[in-house]
Write a structure and sequence with these properties.
single chain, mainly alpha, globular, about 120 residues, 6 helices
């Protein structure tokens, strides 16, 4: 049972950190947003760090605040996939677009294109 607790905490924490960094928020920024929604459930910066690193499990009130901030259902956090497949596809498409745009700007001939694999980067 202890292993499943840590596994659950790890997935939830990883998803919170993913959303926070995706939205270019610091730990402090997220705490401030949590305090605006429910000041009683907002953790300290160090406790949020422990949650994100899977060392603590968040409270239900805190999770409700997180769901509201990031506009996600609670079930999204309970899923064991860190990135849903459609988000992976979107990230891959965005990366490929940026990569091709950058290459076209910096490479004068098609023979000079470097060989890169998106699978190694995502």
């Amino acid at each position: 049972m202890k292993t499943s607790f840590y596994r659950k905490a790890h997935f939830i924490g990883a998803k919170i950190k993913y959303l926070r960094t995706l939205n270019k928020m610091t730990l402090e920024d997220l705490i401030v947003r949590c305090m605006q929604i429910n000041s009683n459930s907002a953790p300290s910066i160090s406790y949020l760090s422990l949650i994100e690193n899977g060392k603590r499990n968040p409270s239900n009130d805190f999770m409700e605040s997180i769901c509201e901030i990031f506009q996600k259902n609670k079930s999204w956090f309970e899923d064991k996939n860190i990135l849903p497949s459609n988000e992976k596809a979107n990230l891959k498409n965005q990366f490929e677009f940026l990569l091709h745009s950058s290459i076209l700007c910096h490479v004068s001939s098609m023979n000079d294109l470097p060989l890169l694999s998106i699978d190694n980067l995502v």
